[in-house]
Amino acid sequence: MRRTILPLLAPLTIAVLLPAAAQAQGARDGKEAAEDTAPPEVPPAIQAMLDAAMRAGDEAAVNAIAKYAKAGDKPSAEIVQKAAGNWRDERREAAQRRLREARFLDLVKGRAELGGFVNTGNSETVGLTGVVDVKRDGFLWRQKLRLQADYQESLGRTTQERYIAAYDLNYKVEDRAYIYGAAMFESDRFAGFNQRYSLSAGAGYTAIDNGAMRLDVELGPAFRHTALTDDSVESQLAARGKLDFDWKLSRSITFSQDAAAYVQSSNSTITGKTALRAKLFGPFSAQMSYAVNYESMPPSGRKTTDTTSRASLLVDF
After folding, report:
1. What's the whole-number mean pLDDT along residues 257-279?
2. Which domains does the chain carry?
3. What pTM value is reported for the model?
């Protein structure tokens, strides 16, 4: 009888135990698969640096950490890059929201500069310079106003006298591209002209903007009207190009290189300024700069190139 029952019970026992065994094996396989597919964790050191850079609002540092995270820990590099991308997007959206909601004066920033200079070229002098820069960078429009005066009097005689007033208006087509309009008045009888008016319009593009560096380039046609010191008058079309470069070397030191050119059939003008600015305390900064002004066809008796070296104190407001 026992021999008859055992063959009957064997299939039933296997039928009961086999699903349980399969279920247990499936649980083990699932646990191993979960362990294999679990997202990698960012190493504490990398996460700490990323968090610190984000809190400081240092986009250049965030970009650098995201770039080199792969060398430190490849499995978590994608997580770091995604976090950095989300932070940049949120920061950009918040900045745009502030621009849209800001009142006019909320976005006005200015800088005043007062310093001395040593001049070579048409005049060999030591004197004073004063500059005021005012800027408003809105959601769609950016405006810049610059006033500059260089003056020197020696033994009752004026040896340097240069005045500049410039206004730029930019309309932002997209994040980097914009359309500009520019107007400038100059007076510099030591360079051979009493008055010069320049009007220009064209296209501009922000070629670099990564938090630490910014490069703006502009190109367009211009019209210039010049009253020379020999009583002659010139009115001509010209091509205008401009370059503004700023590089934040550290939290307190900034290098800048600005250049502009008006190219025309008679007298063309090229100007350039190299400056190194160091933040002192509060709104105060110190700046060393070197400026070059080139006139291709100055009046008879005038030199083509003037250079100006300045040491200045700057105040932001």
Report:
1. 95
2. 13-101 (no CATH), 107-316 (2.40.160.40)
3. 0.69
